[in-house]
Structure formats: C-alpha cells, structure tokens
Write a structure and sequence with these properties.
This protein has about 240 residues and is mainly α. It contains eight helices and two strands, in the order H-E-H-H-E-H-H-H-H-H. Strands 1-2 form a two-stranded antiparallel sheet. The longest helix has about 45 residues. The relative contact order is 0.09. The mean pLDDT is about 80.
Length: about 240
C-alpha cells in the first residue's frame, strides 16, 4: 500500500529474505515502477503526463527456487495488512501461478516424451549396430572359417567385429554431437535472442560434457550391439 511506512516495508523485506523457498528478492520503489511503466509506454508517455502524481505502489519481486511452491508462498501474503489487496480479494499479490502450472505440465510432458524417445532410439541403435555386425560376420564367414582352421583364438576372431561395432557407435555419436553443437549455435541462441522474456539459459548445460557424454554413450551402445551380434551369430 502507498500508506506503508518505510519500517513496515523493510520489515516485509526481511520476512521475505528469511523464507527458505526464496532465491532472489528485488525491491521496486515507486519511482522505479513509474520509470518501468514509462519505458513500456514508449511513444505514449503523454498518458503518464496527465497524471497528477505517481499512483504506483512500491513492491517486492521474488524468484523462487522451486516453481511448484508459487501458490504456497503467495498465499502467505494474502492477509498481510500492508499489501495492497482489494477488499475480499488477493489482487495485490501477483504470482502467475496458473500460468506457471500450465508451463510446468507442458514441460513435464516434453520431458517424459523426450525420455521415451531417447529410450526407443537407444534400442533402435543397439539393434541397428547388432544387425550391421551380423551382416559383417556373414560377409566374412570364409575368413572366419580359415582363421578357425589355422588355430586362431576365439577373441582373435571376435575382436575385429567388436571394434567395428565400437567404431560404428562412435561415428554415429560424433554425428549426433555435431548436430547438438549446430543446434545450440543457431537455433537455441536465436530463440534466446528473439524471446528474451523466456527464462532460458543456453549455457545451463556445459556443451563440452554433453558432447563427451554423447560420444561415450554412443561408443558403449556400439560395443553392446556388437556384443549381442557376436553372442547370437558367431559360434566359436
């Protein structure tokens, strides 16, 4: 409320900062609120010039650690006597809880769908590499038979096929890593620049570790796929 004293405002700020759910608190004075409004109305500042004073109250802007706690935290201020609520309402506390809930639900669906898609791609990759190794074994069946006859050990015969599967997985992973880098460079940075209002951090995941994880994961999938093929189709 405009009638809140400096001591009451400071006391409210201390109360907010003491809450464990709060990540960041910003105090917006009446003058700063009016400056923001003037910036948003750029080209139509004459609307503000018609005002006799500054009708905007001071406020606190809070960022939470967990967006799922928005409504819980907001409800703590509904009955605070210095909050500018209309009689019988809580319009002095603006949390965007419904918008946040919808956004979180959509995000959860994307995460679940993405996890399912990654699982299917993993299975497909293993089967594809396994089938490739199987075809390689079939194409070299005469060489395998000759190596058996001259007394080659089992692993001497198997290792070339294992390395072929590992190399196939590594090359596929390298292609995926390049795609990740290109996507991050052109698409994600473009989204961040064109929609700065989205709380999106392009550097949230270190690209080096992501690319390394993709390559290591692809190499492991290659070894698993070749191992399955050797176990089923190369009887030594």
């Amino acid at each position: 409320k405009n009638t809140a004293s400096p001591d009451q405002i400071e006391e409210l700020g201390d109360e907010i900062r003491a809450m464990p759910e709060i990540r960041q608190v910003i105090f917006v004075s009446k003058e700063e609120a009016l400056a923001r409004l003037r910036k948003n109305l750029e080209g139509h500042e004459d609307v503000l010039d018609a005002l006799s004073g500054n009708p905007l109250p001071p406020s606190y802007e809070m960022t939470l650690k967990d967006p799922n706690q928005i409504e819980e935290v907001a409800s703590r201020f509904y009955d605070n006597p210095i909050i500018d609520n209309s009689p019988g309402k809580h319009d002095g506390v603006k949390s965007g809880g419904e918008t946040s809930d919808r956004f979180l639900r959509v995000t959860s669906l994307f995460l679940i769908g993405g996890a399912g898609f990654v699982f299917l791609l993993t299975i497909a990759s293993v089967l594809l590499i396994s089938n490739t190794t199987r075809l390689s074994i079939f194409a070299r069946r005469r060489e395998v038979e000759i190596m058996r006859l001259v007394g080659a050990t089992n692993w001497f015969i198997r290792w070339p096929f294992v390395m072929e599967g590992v190399f196939t997985g590594m090359m596929g992973a390298a292609g995926a890593a390049i795609l990740v880098l290109v996507t991050n460079r052109f698409i994600i940075e473009s989204v961040v620049n064109k929609m700065p209002f989205l709380p999106f951090n392009a550097d949230a995941v270190p690209l080096f570790w992501l690319v390394l994880a993709v390559i290591v994961g692809g190499t492991m999938l290659g070894s698993v796929g070749s191992g399955l093929a050797l176990r089923r189709f190369l009887r030594i």
